[in-house]
Design brief:
The complex is a heterodimer of chains A (455) and B (164). With 455 residues, chain A is α/β, with parallel strands linked by helices. Chain A contains 15 helices and 18 strands. Chain A has three domains: 132 residues, 2-Layer Sandwich (Aconitase, domain 3); 98 residues, Aconitase, Domain 2 (3-Layer(aba) Sandwich), CATH 3.40.1060; 192 residues, Aconitase, domain 3 (2-Layer Sandwich). The longest helix of chain A is centred in the first third of the chain and has 17 residues. The termini of chain A are far apart. Chain B has 164 residues and is of the alpha/beta class. Classes of the chains: A alpha/beta (455), B alpha/beta (164).
Protein backbone atom coordinates (compact mmCIF):
# COMPACT_ATOMS: atom_id res chain seq x y z
CA UNK A 1 0.00 0.00 0.00
CA UNK A 2 1.35 3.47 -0.85
CA UNK A 3 2.17 5.37 2.31
CA UNK A 4 1.76 8.95 3.42
CA UNK A 5 4.73 10.68 5.03
CA UNK A 6 3.29 10.02 8.50
CA UNK A 7 2.78 6.30 7.75
CA UNK A 8 6.28 6.07 6.37
CA UNK A 9 7.94 7.67 9.38
CA UNK A 10 5.88 5.73 11.91
CA UNK A 11 6.40 2.42 10.05
CA UNK A 12 10.14 3.01 10.10
CA UNK A 13 10.44 3.98 13.78
CA UNK A 14 7.94 1.34 14.96
CA UNK A 15 9.68 -1.29 12.79
CA UNK A 16 6.33 -2.58 11.52
CA UNK A 17 3.85 -1.85 8.80
CA UNK A 18 1.93 1.08 10.32
CA UNK A 19 -1.36 2.06 8.71
CA UNK A 20 -3.88 4.78 9.51
CA UNK A 21 -5.73 3.98 12.72
CA UNK A 22 -3.10 1.59 14.12
CA UNK A 23 -1.80 2.25 17.61
CA UNK A 24 1.99 2.15 17.66
CA UNK A 25 4.55 2.43 20.41
CA UNK A 26 7.60 4.22 19.04
CA UNK A 27 11.01 5.43 20.22
CA UNK A 28 11.48 9.19 20.34
CA UNK A 29 14.69 10.77 19.03
CA UNK A 30 14.36 13.74 21.38
CA UNK A 31 12.11 15.10 24.10
CA UNK A 32 11.59 18.85 24.43
CA UNK A 33 10.63 20.32 27.81
CA UNK A 34 9.98 24.00 28.62
CA UNK A 35 9.67 26.08 31.75
CA UNK A 36 5.91 26.39 31.80
CA UNK A 37 5.29 22.72 32.57
CA UNK A 38 8.53 21.55 34.12
CA UNK A 39 7.10 21.25 37.64
CA UNK A 40 4.46 18.83 36.44
CA UNK A 41 7.01 16.91 34.36
CA UNK A 42 9.35 16.51 37.35
CA UNK A 43 6.41 15.45 39.52
CA UNK A 44 5.35 12.96 36.84
CA UNK A 45 8.81 11.39 36.69
CA UNK A 46 8.88 11.16 40.48
CA UNK A 47 5.41 9.57 40.56
CA UNK A 48 6.62 7.07 37.96
CA UNK A 49 9.40 6.12 40.39
CA UNK A 50 12.09 7.23 37.90
CA UNK A 51 15.02 9.21 39.21
CA UNK A 52 16.77 9.71 35.88
CA UNK A 53 15.65 10.49 32.34
CA UNK A 54 16.25 7.61 29.93
CA UNK A 55 18.99 9.38 27.95
CA UNK A 56 20.34 12.79 28.94
CA UNK A 57 21.73 13.42 25.45
CA UNK A 58 18.24 13.25 23.93
CA UNK A 59 16.55 15.77 26.18
CA UNK A 60 16.38 19.50 25.42
CA UNK A 61 15.20 21.96 28.08
CA UNK A 62 14.20 25.60 27.54
CA UNK A 63 13.27 28.60 29.65
CA UNK A 64 11.16 30.65 27.25
CA UNK A 65 7.48 30.77 28.15
CA UNK A 66 7.76 33.31 30.98
CA UNK A 67 11.30 34.53 30.66
CA UNK A 68 13.06 36.34 32.18
CA UNK A 69 10.97 35.51 35.24
CA UNK A 70 8.21 38.11 35.69
CA UNK A 71 7.24 37.16 39.28
CA UNK A 72 8.83 35.45 42.31
CA UNK A 73 6.64 32.35 41.82
CA UNK A 74 7.93 31.94 38.27
CA UNK A 75 11.48 32.65 39.40
CA UNK A 76 11.19 29.83 41.96
CA UNK A 77 9.93 27.49 39.26
CA UNK A 78 12.88 28.40 37.03
CA UNK A 79 15.27 27.76 39.93
CA UNK A 80 13.77 24.29 40.43
CA UNK A 81 14.15 23.68 36.69
CA UNK A 82 17.85 24.63 36.70
CA UNK A 83 18.55 22.37 39.67
CA UNK A 84 16.79 19.53 37.91
CA UNK A 85 18.78 20.12 34.70
CA UNK A 86 22.06 20.11 36.67
CA UNK A 87 21.32 17.03 38.75
CA UNK A 88 20.10 15.14 35.69
CA UNK A 89 23.20 16.17 33.76
CA UNK A 90 21.27 17.54 30.77
CA UNK A 91 23.63 19.54 28.55
CA UNK A 92 21.07 20.77 26.01
CA UNK A 93 19.71 23.53 28.20
CA UNK A 94 18.78 27.02 26.95
CA UNK A 95 18.09 29.54 29.70
CA UNK A 96 16.02 32.74 29.56
CA UNK A 97 16.82 34.98 26.61
CA UNK A 98 18.11 32.26 24.29
CA UNK A 99 14.82 32.06 22.45
CA UNK A 100 11.65 30.11 21.77
CA UNK A 101 12.13 26.35 22.15
CA UNK A 102 10.82 25.57 18.64
CA UNK A 103 13.05 28.08 16.88
CA UNK A 104 16.15 26.73 18.63
CA UNK A 105 15.13 23.09 18.16
CA UNK A 106 14.99 23.62 14.40
CA UNK A 107 17.75 26.16 13.77
CA UNK A 108 20.31 24.47 16.01
CA UNK A 109 19.69 21.10 14.38
CA UNK A 110 18.04 19.15 17.21
CA UNK A 111 15.30 17.80 14.96
CA UNK A 112 16.35 14.70 13.09
CA UNK A 113 14.23 14.33 9.93
CA UNK A 114 12.18 11.15 9.73
CA UNK A 115 12.09 10.59 13.50
CA UNK A 116 9.48 11.18 16.20
CA UNK A 117 10.07 14.09 18.58
CA UNK A 118 7.68 14.93 21.40
CA UNK A 119 7.52 18.29 23.10
CA UNK A 120 5.69 19.72 26.07
CA UNK A 121 4.35 22.52 23.91
CA UNK A 122 1.46 22.32 21.48
CA UNK A 123 3.51 23.96 18.72
CA UNK A 124 6.01 21.08 18.68
CA UNK A 125 4.46 20.37 15.27
CA UNK A 126 7.04 22.97 14.14
CA UNK A 127 9.67 20.22 13.78
CA UNK A 128 7.92 19.10 10.62
CA UNK A 129 9.68 22.11 9.04
CA UNK A 130 12.68 19.80 8.56
CA UNK A 131 10.75 16.55 8.07
CA UNK A 132 10.49 15.37 11.67
CA UNK A 133 7.24 14.01 13.12
CA UNK A 134 6.91 16.55 15.94
CA UNK A 135 3.96 16.20 18.30
CA UNK A 136 2.95 18.30 21.28
CA UNK A 137 1.90 16.51 24.43
CA UNK A 138 0.95 17.21 28.03
CA UNK A 139 3.26 17.02 31.02
CA UNK A 140 2.47 13.43 31.98
CA UNK A 141 3.00 12.16 28.42
CA UNK A 142 6.32 14.01 28.42
CA UNK A 143 7.29 12.52 31.78
CA UNK A 144 6.50 9.06 30.41
CA UNK A 145 8.60 9.74 27.29
CA UNK A 146 11.47 10.95 29.49
CA UNK A 147 11.22 7.80 31.58
CA UNK A 148 10.86 5.25 28.77
CA UNK A 149 12.25 6.96 25.65
CA UNK A 150 9.05 5.88 23.95
CA UNK A 151 5.53 7.13 23.38
CA UNK A 152 2.29 5.79 21.94
CA UNK A 153 0.61 7.24 18.89
CA UNK A 154 -2.37 6.50 16.74
CA UNK A 155 -1.20 6.54 13.13
CA UNK A 156 -2.96 9.64 11.80
CA UNK A 157 -4.87 10.23 8.61
CA UNK A 158 -3.14 12.80 6.45
CA UNK A 159 -4.37 15.96 4.80
CA UNK A 160 -2.51 17.04 1.69
CA UNK A 161 -1.95 20.78 1.34
CA UNK A 162 -0.42 21.89 -1.95
CA UNK A 163 0.91 25.36 -2.69
CA UNK A 164 1.16 26.54 -6.27
CA UNK A 165 2.47 29.77 -7.77
CA UNK A 166 4.49 32.51 -6.14
CA UNK A 167 3.06 35.05 -3.68
CA UNK A 168 2.93 38.67 -4.76
CA UNK A 169 5.02 41.29 -2.98
CA UNK A 170 3.63 41.91 0.50
CA UNK A 171 2.08 38.43 0.77
CA UNK A 172 3.86 35.85 2.92
CA UNK A 173 3.66 32.20 3.91
CA UNK A 174 1.92 33.41 7.09
CA UNK A 175 -0.91 34.52 4.84
CA UNK A 176 -0.71 31.16 3.07
CA UNK A 177 -1.08 29.11 6.27
CA UNK A 178 -3.86 31.37 7.55
CA UNK A 179 -5.63 30.71 4.26
CA UNK A 180 -5.22 26.98 4.92
CA UNK A 181 -6.59 27.36 8.47
CA UNK A 182 -9.54 29.24 6.96
CA UNK A 183 -10.23 26.29 4.63
CA UNK A 184 -9.68 23.49 7.13
CA UNK A 185 -10.93 25.07 10.37
CA UNK A 186 -9.69 24.72 13.95
CA UNK A 187 -10.59 21.04 14.13
CA UNK A 188 -10.52 20.02 10.48
CA UNK A 189 -7.15 18.32 10.95
CA UNK A 190 -7.93 16.84 14.37
CA UNK A 191 -5.78 13.72 15.01
CA UNK A 192 -4.38 14.15 11.49
CA UNK A 193 -1.03 14.93 9.93
CA UNK A 194 -0.92 17.87 7.54
CA UNK A 195 1.45 17.14 4.68
CA UNK A 196 2.74 20.22 2.82
CA UNK A 197 3.57 19.88 -0.85
CA UNK A 198 5.21 22.62 -2.89
CA UNK A 199 6.90 24.13 0.18
CA UNK A 200 10.09 22.07 0.52
CA UNK A 201 12.33 24.66 -1.11
CA UNK A 202 11.07 27.58 0.97
CA UNK A 203 13.42 29.12 3.55
CA UNK A 204 13.49 27.17 6.82
CA UNK A 205 11.71 30.00 8.66
CA UNK A 206 8.71 29.88 6.31
CA UNK A 207 8.54 26.13 6.81
CA UNK A 208 8.42 26.62 10.60
CA UNK A 209 5.52 29.06 10.12
CA UNK A 210 3.65 26.41 8.13
CA UNK A 211 4.36 23.37 10.30
CA UNK A 212 3.82 25.17 13.61
CA UNK A 213 0.41 26.50 12.68
CA UNK A 214 -0.96 23.06 11.86
CA UNK A 215 -1.59 22.96 15.61
CA UNK A 216 -4.31 25.56 15.07
CA UNK A 217 -6.19 23.03 12.92
CA UNK A 218 -5.98 20.34 15.61
CA UNK A 219 -3.24 18.41 13.82
CA UNK A 220 -1.02 15.87 15.52
CA UNK A 221 1.83 16.77 13.19
CA UNK A 222 2.55 18.98 10.20
CA UNK A 223 5.32 17.89 7.88
CA UNK A 224 6.86 19.62 4.88
CA UNK A 225 7.65 17.29 1.99
CA UNK A 226 11.01 17.36 0.17
CA UNK A 227 12.99 19.69 2.41
CA UNK A 228 16.76 20.00 1.94
CA UNK A 229 17.23 18.25 5.30
CA UNK A 230 15.17 15.16 4.42
CA UNK A 231 16.92 11.84 3.76
CA UNK A 232 16.24 10.06 0.47
CA UNK A 233 13.62 7.67 1.84
CA UNK A 234 11.50 10.48 3.31
CA UNK A 235 8.78 11.15 0.76
CA UNK A 236 5.10 10.20 0.53
CA UNK A 237 4.40 7.44 -1.95
CA UNK A 238 2.62 8.23 -5.18
CA UNK A 239 -1.01 7.20 -4.72
CA UNK A 240 -1.05 7.54 -0.93
CA UNK A 241 -4.56 8.06 0.46
CA UNK A 242 -5.51 11.43 1.95
CA UNK A 243 -8.50 12.29 4.10
CA UNK A 244 -8.70 15.72 2.51
CA UNK A 245 -6.79 17.80 -0.03
CA UNK A 246 -6.46 21.55 -0.15
CA UNK A 247 -4.68 23.59 -2.81
CA UNK A 248 -3.75 27.23 -2.31
CA UNK A 249 -2.71 29.32 -5.32
CA UNK A 250 -0.20 31.72 -3.82
CA UNK A 251 -0.22 33.96 -6.88
CA UNK A 252 -3.76 35.18 -6.19
CA UNK A 253 -3.54 35.14 -2.39
CA UNK A 254 -4.39 38.34 -0.49
CA UNK A 255 -2.93 39.20 2.92
CA UNK A 256 -5.05 37.35 5.51
CA UNK A 257 -6.37 38.44 8.91
CA UNK A 258 -7.70 36.20 11.69
CA UNK A 259 -10.54 37.94 13.49
CA UNK A 260 -10.91 37.38 17.25
CA UNK A 261 -11.60 35.18 19.02
CA UNK A 262 -11.09 32.40 16.46
CA UNK A 263 -7.95 31.61 14.53
CA UNK A 264 -10.01 30.08 11.71
CA UNK A 265 -12.20 33.16 11.39
CA UNK A 266 -9.95 34.42 8.62
CA UNK A 267 -10.76 37.16 6.11
CA UNK A 268 -8.94 38.90 3.28
CA UNK A 269 -7.30 42.04 4.66
CA UNK A 270 -9.70 44.19 2.63
CA UNK A 271 -12.50 43.11 4.98
CA UNK A 272 -10.61 44.30 8.07
CA UNK A 273 -9.28 47.62 6.76
CA UNK A 274 -9.75 50.47 9.23
CA UNK A 275 -9.94 48.29 12.34
CA UNK A 276 -8.15 50.36 15.04
CA UNK A 277 -5.36 48.72 17.05
CA UNK A 278 -3.66 49.79 20.27
CA UNK A 279 -0.83 47.27 20.45
CA UNK A 280 1.20 45.44 17.82
CA UNK A 281 3.22 42.33 18.64
CA UNK A 282 5.86 41.11 16.20
CA UNK A 283 7.37 37.85 17.35
CA UNK A 284 6.70 34.23 18.40
CA UNK A 285 7.74 30.87 16.94
CA UNK A 286 5.44 31.71 14.03
CA UNK A 287 6.91 35.08 12.99
CA UNK A 288 9.85 36.20 15.13
CA UNK A 289 12.72 35.61 12.73
CA UNK A 290 15.10 37.95 10.93
CA UNK A 291 13.05 37.81 7.75
CA UNK A 292 9.92 38.83 9.67
CA UNK A 293 11.72 41.73 11.37
CA UNK A 294 13.15 42.75 7.99
CA UNK A 295 9.70 42.79 6.44
CA UNK A 296 8.51 45.08 9.24
CA UNK A 297 11.60 47.25 8.86
CA UNK A 298 10.98 47.57 5.14
CA UNK A 299 7.79 49.45 6.05
CA UNK A 300 9.01 51.27 9.16
CA UNK A 301 12.58 52.19 8.32
CA UNK A 302 13.18 55.91 8.72
CA UNK A 303 9.65 56.44 9.99
CA UNK A 304 7.90 56.63 13.34
CA UNK A 305 4.99 54.42 14.39
CA UNK A 306 1.72 56.05 15.39
CA UNK A 307 2.24 57.96 18.65
CA UNK A 308 -0.78 56.21 20.20
CA UNK A 309 0.34 52.67 19.32
CA UNK A 310 2.78 50.42 21.19
CA UNK A 311 4.88 48.06 19.10
CA UNK A 312 6.67 45.18 20.78
CA UNK A 313 9.25 43.19 18.83
CA UNK A 314 10.49 39.92 20.31
CA UNK A 315 13.04 37.97 18.25
CA UNK A 316 12.46 34.23 18.34
CA UNK A 317 16.06 33.35 19.24
CA UNK A 318 19.37 34.95 20.10
CA UNK A 319 20.64 34.06 16.64
CA UNK A 320 17.72 35.93 15.03
CA UNK A 321 18.16 38.77 17.54
CA UNK A 322 21.85 39.20 16.78
CA UNK A 323 21.42 38.86 13.02
CA UNK A 324 18.80 41.60 13.20
CA UNK A 325 21.16 43.71 15.28
CA UNK A 326 24.07 43.19 12.95
CA UNK A 327 22.24 44.25 9.80
CA UNK A 328 20.60 47.28 11.41
CA UNK A 329 17.07 45.89 11.35
CA UNK A 330 16.59 46.20 15.10
CA UNK A 331 17.99 49.72 15.09
CA UNK A 332 15.45 50.66 12.41
CA UNK A 333 12.64 49.15 14.45
CA UNK A 334 13.77 50.81 17.68
CA UNK A 335 14.15 54.14 15.90
CA UNK A 336 10.59 53.68 14.66
CA UNK A 337 9.45 53.41 18.28
CA UNK A 338 9.42 49.64 18.90
CA UNK A 339 10.08 48.08 22.28
CA UNK A 340 12.58 45.27 21.71
CA UNK A 341 12.11 42.33 24.07
CA UNK A 342 14.59 39.59 24.89
CA UNK A 343 14.28 36.46 22.77
CA UNK A 344 11.53 34.09 23.89
CA UNK A 345 7.77 33.67 23.72
CA UNK A 346 7.22 37.28 24.81
CA UNK A 347 3.60 38.37 25.26
CA UNK A 348 2.24 35.67 22.90
CA UNK A 349 0.72 33.78 25.82
CA UNK A 350 0.08 36.69 28.15
CA UNK A 351 2.56 35.88 30.86
CA UNK A 352 5.31 38.39 30.33
CA UNK A 353 6.12 41.37 28.17
CA UNK A 354 3.33 43.76 27.25
CA UNK A 355 0.13 42.04 28.29
CA UNK A 356 -3.17 43.49 27.10
CA UNK A 357 -5.70 45.53 29.09
CA UNK A 358 -9.46 45.12 28.80
CA UNK A 359 -10.91 46.72 25.64
CA UNK A 360 -7.48 46.89 24.01
CA UNK A 361 -7.05 45.63 20.46
CA UNK A 362 -3.85 43.90 19.38
CA UNK A 363 -2.52 42.95 15.98
CA UNK A 364 -0.23 40.01 16.56
CA UNK A 365 1.99 38.01 14.23
CA UNK A 366 1.71 34.99 16.55
CA UNK A 367 -0.64 32.05 16.14
CA UNK A 368 -3.54 32.30 18.61
CA UNK A 369 -6.24 34.85 19.29
CA UNK A 370 -8.35 33.11 21.92
CA UNK A 371 -10.11 35.22 24.49
CA UNK A 372 -7.66 36.03 27.29
CA UNK A 373 -4.65 34.68 25.41
CA UNK A 374 -2.45 37.78 25.75
CA UNK A 375 -3.79 39.22 29.01
CA UNK A 376 -7.24 40.53 29.76
CA UNK A 377 -10.16 38.36 28.71
CA UNK A 378 -11.75 41.56 27.38
CA UNK A 379 -8.93 42.30 24.95
CA UNK A 380 -9.18 41.40 21.24
CA UNK A 381 -6.41 39.89 19.13
CA UNK A 382 -6.22 40.05 15.35
CA UNK A 383 -3.55 37.92 13.67
CA UNK A 384 -1.65 38.86 10.55
CA UNK A 385 1.69 38.90 8.78
CA UNK A 386 4.72 41.02 9.71
CA UNK A 387 3.86 43.42 6.85
CA UNK A 388 0.34 43.89 8.21
CA UNK A 389 1.79 44.34 11.70
CA UNK A 390 4.17 47.05 10.56
CA UNK A 391 1.47 48.99 8.74
CA UNK A 392 -0.84 48.65 11.77
CA UNK A 393 1.89 50.05 14.03
CA UNK A 394 2.47 52.91 11.62
CA UNK A 395 -1.14 53.90 11.04
CA UNK A 396 -2.94 52.58 14.12
CA UNK A 397 -5.38 50.63 11.97
CA UNK A 398 -5.35 47.40 10.01
CA UNK A 399 -4.64 48.03 6.35
CA UNK A 400 -3.45 46.27 3.23
CA UNK A 401 0.35 46.54 3.31
CA UNK A 402 0.84 46.26 -0.44
CA UNK A 403 0.16 49.88 -1.47
CA UNK A 404 2.71 51.01 1.14
CA UNK A 405 5.38 48.79 -0.40
CA UNK A 406 4.82 50.30 -3.83
CA UNK A 407 4.23 53.93 -2.84
CA UNK A 408 6.52 56.92 -3.37
CA UNK A 409 7.47 58.75 -0.18
CA UNK A 410 4.76 61.36 -0.73
CA UNK A 411 2.10 58.75 -1.46
CA UNK A 412 3.21 56.77 1.56
CA UNK A 413 2.90 59.77 3.90
CA UNK A 414 -0.53 60.50 2.48
CA UNK A 415 -1.69 56.92 3.08
CA UNK A 416 -0.45 57.06 6.69
CA UNK A 417 -2.04 60.44 7.40
CA UNK A 418 -5.41 59.33 6.09
CA UNK A 419 -5.41 56.15 8.14
CA UNK A 420 -4.23 57.85 11.33
CA UNK A 421 -7.12 60.30 11.07
CA UNK A 422 -9.51 57.32 11.25
CA UNK A 423 -8.55 56.30 14.74
CA UNK A 424 -8.73 59.55 16.69
CA UNK A 425 -9.72 59.34 20.33
CA UNK A 426 -7.84 56.19 21.37
CA UNK A 427 -4.91 55.96 23.75
CA UNK A 428 -2.51 58.82 24.37
CA UNK A 429 0.26 60.11 22.15
CA UNK A 430 3.69 59.14 23.43
CA UNK A 431 6.72 61.31 23.01
CA UNK A 432 9.37 59.09 21.44
CA UNK A 433 12.58 59.61 23.33
CA UNK A 434 14.96 58.21 20.78
CA UNK A 435 15.66 61.13 18.47
CA UNK A 436 19.27 60.14 18.67
CA UNK A 437 18.40 56.87 16.98
CA UNK A 438 18.25 58.60 13.61
CA UNK A 439 21.77 59.92 14.09
CA UNK A 440 22.87 56.43 15.13
CA UNK A 441 21.32 54.96 12.01
CA UNK A 442 23.12 57.44 9.82
CA UNK A 443 26.38 56.77 11.66
CA UNK A 444 25.86 53.02 11.42
CA UNK A 445 25.13 53.26 7.72
CA UNK A 446 28.31 55.30 7.19
CA UNK A 447 30.41 52.77 9.10
CA UNK A 448 28.96 50.00 6.97
CA UNK A 449 27.37 48.17 9.90
CA UNK A 450 23.84 48.48 8.62
CA UNK A 451 23.35 46.34 5.58
CA UNK A 452 20.99 47.33 2.84
CA UNK A 453 17.56 46.10 3.85
CA UNK A 454 15.48 44.58 1.17
CA UNK A 455 12.55 42.30 1.71
CA UNK B 1 -26.51 11.71 40.43
CA UNK B 2 -24.22 14.47 39.38
CA UNK B 3 -24.59 17.85 37.72
CA UNK B 4 -23.96 18.40 34.04
CA UNK B 5 -22.03 21.47 32.97
CA UNK B 6 -22.73 22.09 29.30
CA UNK B 7 -20.38 24.01 27.01
CA UNK B 8 -20.37 24.73 23.29
CA UNK B 9 -17.94 23.98 20.46
CA UNK B 10 -14.19 24.69 20.51
CA UNK B 11 -13.83 25.13 24.26
CA UNK B 12 -10.11 25.94 24.46
CA UNK B 13 -7.71 25.32 27.32
CA UNK B 14 -7.38 29.09 27.92
CA UNK B 15 -11.07 28.96 28.88
CA UNK B 16 -10.52 26.05 31.24
CA UNK B 17 -7.56 27.65 33.04
CA UNK B 18 -6.24 30.93 31.57
CA UNK B 19 -2.46 31.06 31.09
CA UNK B 20 -2.12 33.80 33.65
CA UNK B 21 -3.32 31.36 36.33
CA UNK B 22 -0.96 28.55 35.36
CA UNK B 23 0.37 26.66 38.37
CA UNK B 24 3.76 28.16 37.80
CA UNK B 25 2.23 31.62 37.86
CA UNK B 26 0.05 31.18 40.98
CA UNK B 27 1.47 28.09 42.69
CA UNK B 28 0.74 24.37 42.55
CA UNK B 29 -1.96 24.55 45.24
CA UNK B 30 -4.09 27.32 43.75
CA UNK B 31 -4.49 27.05 39.99
CA UNK B 32 -7.60 24.87 40.06
CA UNK B 33 -9.65 27.59 41.76
CA UNK B 34 -9.39 29.54 38.47
CA UNK B 35 -11.08 26.80 36.46
CA UNK B 36 -13.48 28.47 33.99
CA UNK B 37 -13.00 31.79 35.85
CA UNK B 38 -13.62 33.79 32.64
CA UNK B 39 -15.84 31.37 30.74
CA UNK B 40 -18.10 30.29 33.62
CA UNK B 41 -17.61 32.40 36.74
CA UNK B 42 -18.64 30.50 39.89
CA UNK B 43 -17.77 27.08 38.46
CA UNK B 44 -14.93 26.38 40.89
CA UNK B 45 -17.18 27.10 43.88
CA UNK B 46 -20.21 25.16 42.70
CA UNK B 47 -18.66 22.11 41.05
CA UNK B 48 -18.89 18.85 43.00
CA UNK B 49 -16.89 15.64 42.65
CA UNK B 50 -18.44 13.39 40.04
CA UNK B 51 -19.91 16.23 37.99
CA UNK B 52 -19.85 15.72 34.22
CA UNK B 53 -18.77 18.23 31.57
CA UNK B 54 -20.63 18.10 28.27
CA UNK B 55 -19.46 19.83 25.11
CA UNK B 56 -19.65 20.07 21.36
CA UNK B 57 -16.89 19.75 18.79
CA UNK B 58 -13.16 20.03 19.51
CA UNK B 59 -13.42 20.12 23.30
CA UNK B 60 -10.13 21.19 24.92
CA UNK B 61 -8.45 22.68 21.87
CA UNK B 62 -5.50 25.02 22.11
CA UNK B 63 -2.48 24.82 24.35
CA UNK B 64 -1.06 21.50 25.51
CA UNK B 65 -1.31 22.70 29.11
CA UNK B 66 -2.03 19.63 31.18
CA UNK B 67 -2.88 21.77 34.20
CA UNK B 68 -6.23 22.52 32.54
CA UNK B 69 -7.00 18.82 32.93
CA UNK B 70 -5.22 18.65 36.30
CA UNK B 71 -7.54 21.42 37.54
CA UNK B 72 -10.57 19.37 36.46
CA UNK B 73 -9.08 16.27 38.13
CA UNK B 74 -8.57 18.26 41.34
CA UNK B 75 -12.25 19.14 41.29
CA UNK B 76 -13.03 15.44 40.88
CA UNK B 77 -14.72 15.73 37.47
CA UNK B 78 -16.29 12.32 36.81
CA UNK B 79 -16.08 12.44 33.06
CA UNK B 80 -16.27 14.58 29.95
CA UNK B 81 -18.67 13.85 27.11
CA UNK B 82 -18.34 15.79 23.87
CA UNK B 83 -18.93 15.45 20.13
CA UNK B 84 -15.16 15.41 19.67
CA UNK B 85 -11.99 16.20 21.59
CA UNK B 86 -8.76 18.00 20.74
CA UNK B 87 -6.03 15.38 20.63
CA UNK B 88 -3.66 16.63 23.34
CA UNK B 89 -6.53 17.27 25.73
CA UNK B 90 -7.85 13.77 25.06
CA UNK B 91 -4.46 12.20 25.88
CA UNK B 92 -4.07 14.35 28.99
CA UNK B 93 -7.46 13.20 30.30
CA UNK B 94 -6.67 9.53 29.75
CA UNK B 95 -3.27 10.02 31.38
CA UNK B 96 -4.77 11.73 34.44
CA UNK B 97 -7.65 9.24 34.72
CA UNK B 98 -10.64 11.32 33.56
CA UNK B 99 -12.96 9.35 31.25
CA UNK B 100 -13.39 11.19 27.93
CA UNK B 101 -16.20 9.94 25.77
CA UNK B 102 -17.39 10.96 22.35
CA UNK B 103 -21.11 11.33 21.89
CA UNK B 104 -22.99 12.80 18.96
CA UNK B 105 -26.15 13.64 20.88
CA UNK B 106 -25.12 14.45 24.48
CA UNK B 107 -24.74 18.16 23.85
CA UNK B 108 -28.27 18.39 22.48
CA UNK B 109 -29.94 15.97 24.92
CA UNK B 110 -28.36 17.31 28.10
CA UNK B 111 -29.11 20.78 29.43
CA UNK B 112 -26.83 22.76 31.69
CA UNK B 113 -27.59 21.96 35.32
CA UNK B 114 -29.29 18.63 34.57
CA UNK B 115 -28.85 15.82 37.06
CA UNK B 116 -27.10 13.13 35.02
CA UNK B 117 -25.52 9.73 35.47
CA UNK B 118 -22.47 8.61 33.53
CA UNK B 119 -23.02 4.88 33.01
CA UNK B 120 -19.77 3.67 31.48
CA UNK B 121 -20.80 0.01 31.64
CA UNK B 122 -23.90 0.68 29.53
CA UNK B 123 -22.11 3.27 27.37
CA UNK B 124 -24.72 5.90 28.18
CA UNK B 125 -25.00 9.33 29.72
CA UNK B 126 -28.40 9.26 31.41
CA UNK B 127 -30.19 12.62 31.57
CA UNK B 128 -33.76 13.84 32.21
CA UNK B 129 -34.19 14.55 28.50
CA UNK B 130 -33.07 11.06 27.46
CA UNK B 131 -29.99 8.89 27.21
CA UNK B 132 -26.99 9.95 25.15
CA UNK B 133 -25.03 7.14 23.55
CA UNK B 134 -21.27 7.10 24.16
CA UNK B 135 -18.70 5.80 21.67
CA UNK B 136 -16.66 3.02 23.28
CA UNK B 137 -13.02 3.83 24.04
CA UNK B 138 -10.15 1.81 22.59
CA UNK B 139 -9.12 -1.05 24.94
CA UNK B 140 -5.69 0.60 25.27
CA UNK B 141 -7.27 3.73 26.75
CA UNK B 142 -9.73 1.72 28.86
CA UNK B 143 -6.87 -0.15 30.50
CA UNK B 144 -5.09 3.08 31.42
CA UNK B 145 -8.30 4.63 32.77
CA UNK B 146 -9.08 1.51 34.78
CA UNK B 147 -5.71 1.88 36.52
CA UNK B 148 -6.52 5.52 37.34
CA UNK B 149 -4.15 7.02 34.80
CA UNK B 150 -0.94 6.31 32.95
CA UNK B 151 1.38 6.85 35.92
CA UNK B 152 -0.51 4.32 38.01
CA UNK B 153 -0.62 1.93 35.04
CA UNK B 154 3.10 2.13 34.40
CA UNK B 155 3.94 1.76 38.08
CA UNK B 156 1.92 -1.41 38.16
CA UNK B 157 2.88 -2.91 34.79
CA UNK B 158 6.20 -1.27 33.90
CA UNK B 159 5.17 -0.69 30.28
CA UNK B 160 2.30 0.51 28.09
CA UNK B 161 -0.72 -1.72 27.50
CA UNK B 162 -0.36 -3.91 24.43
CA UNK B 163 -1.28 -2.31 21.10
CA UNK B 164 -1.47 -5.57 19.15
Amino acid sequence: MPKTLAEKILSRVAARDAKVGDLVIVPVSRVMVHDSVVDAVIAGLRDLGKERVWDTTKVAVFVDHAAPAPTPVVADSHRVLREWVRTQGIATFYDAGEGVCHQIMVEEGYCEPGTVIVGSDSHSNSYGAVGAFGAGMGATDIAVALALGRTWLRVPESIKVTFTGRPRKGVTMKDAIMRVVREIGTDGARYACVEFHGAGSLPQGDRITLAGMTTEMGAKAGIVVATPEAPDWLFPDHGAAYANEVTVDLSTLEPQIAVPPRVDQVVDVSEAVGQPVDVVFLGSCTNGRLVDMRQAAAVLRGRRISPEVRLEVVPSSRRQFEDAMADGTLLSLSAAGAVIGSSGCGPCLGRTGGVLAGQEVCLSTANRNYRGRMGSADASIFIGSPYVAAVAALTGVIDDPRPYLEATDAEFDDLVARRRAERAGRGAASVRSGDRARELMVAAARSGVAAEIDD
Amino acid sequence: MSRAWVFGDDLDTDQIVPGRYAPFMVGQDKFHIYAFCDARPGFAKEVRPGDVLVGGENFGCGSSREYAVAALAKHGIGGIVAKSFARIFFRNCINLGIPVLESEDAVTVVRDGDAVMLDLAAGLLRAPGGDARLRPLAPFAQEILAAGGVVAYLREHGDFPSVE
